[in-house]
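Slide 14.
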Amino acid sequence: MKSLSDLLSAIMVEEIIGSEDREITSLECDSRKIKLGSLFVAVRGYNVDGHKFIPLVTLAGAAAIVCEELPERLESNVTYIRVANTSVALGYLASQWWGNPSRKLKLVGVTGTNGKTTTATLIYEMARLMGYKAGLLSTVCNYIDSEAVPTNQTTPDPLTLNELLHRMVVAGCSYAAMEVSSHAAHQHRIAGLEFAGGVFSNLTRDHMDYHKTVDAYLAAKKSFFDNLPASAFALTNLDDRNGEVMLQNTRARKYTYSLRQHADFMGRVVESRLDGTLMSFNGREVEVLFTGRFNAYNLTAVYGVATLLGWDAERILVDMSRLVPVAGRFQTFRSPLGVTAIVDYAHTPDALVNVLSAIRDVVGAGGTIITVVGAGGNRDKGKRPIMAREAAVRSQRLVLTSDNPRDENPLDILADMEAGLDEQMRANTLSIADRREAIRTAVALAAPGDVVLVAGKGHEDYQEIKGVKHHFDDREVVAEALKQK
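Slide 15: predicted structure.
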């Protein structure tokens, strides 16, 4: 239990009606979880406005309500707290409820279109290799040191987020890394958190179904850096045209990384293969178990973060060589006959270009690349033809298939993708709605020395069809297909 007055000390209050001298049994933003003595925060969500549930939560026993607009009927046994923005208030209240855990460890946030999961995960792995206990909040899985905690959101809601950070503190973690999605920044899910540092990877078209414009998407990412404290560092990709934009209004200490120009942290690809890369970081060469320029950017960011956190310089280089790829990110499978298959989460045009360019750099002009790719339903339709075209330009054969069709007809999604292809591209393209059959077909078409890229789902172990998640794992299907090759 917490006192209401203590909780309210964490937020900017515009008006209070009722007593602050109350004991609060739980903090909730979901009206279905209200119990006697709860503090309910009426958040204006993307689909539902929590204010409409105020009458219900008072009946359920809520002791206090945080809202932007007071209800017409005020109950005498309930305290009403009016604030300017309940989403922001929820973040600060959640931090206060859990004892402000982000202040008790060094929290590094990673944002950008591509590379968030890999970069955040590798920061977490580096911390553990350096001998520290650490936590991770990511798309693939959350970790409290070595304990895996399943996730279904890139960035959880403030209550879940602060509870996980609290558990990390209790477990003795000194560091934590987390992905900061554009949705989370825009919805103020990270409000109230104190970051030790922030990283920007890149920005390309994504989430237009939510943000509507690229400028709005950029603004959401930038808001994360705008709110970093002066005690934090802000590390940005100098090679991305939006990299310096992220630093314009931040109070944090500013640093850059690059593969192409002078920066605080410079990475260089010396030699690349399908099973690894010889890289240099600020002039020091290291063999890493990653492939592709996009991974070189991720690793350079990790090198920068490790340095800015003050870890031992020589140990950083050693541990960079020990890092392993994240599940479903350029994950490589090989058959005894010499066919290579790569499973990657690439689900944007830019990510596809990065992965296919990495493969082409390694296999050379004579190698055959067969790409399997789809697009998610109920999401940005504008990127579908672009993805198909980029894949067709960089592959010898293309197999279009379903991804997570959700509520859409997979054939309609395929038609949207096919619209991006010219006549010559169509001649080298198959459209197979069944994803399992599409992967099997691509592997069957491959000859020794060829590379099959299965893009879009990566680590995901399901397909979402008509509101139901069915088990489906690209990695399992690829492994099975290669055995039968």
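Speaker note: The chain has a mean pLDDT of 94.
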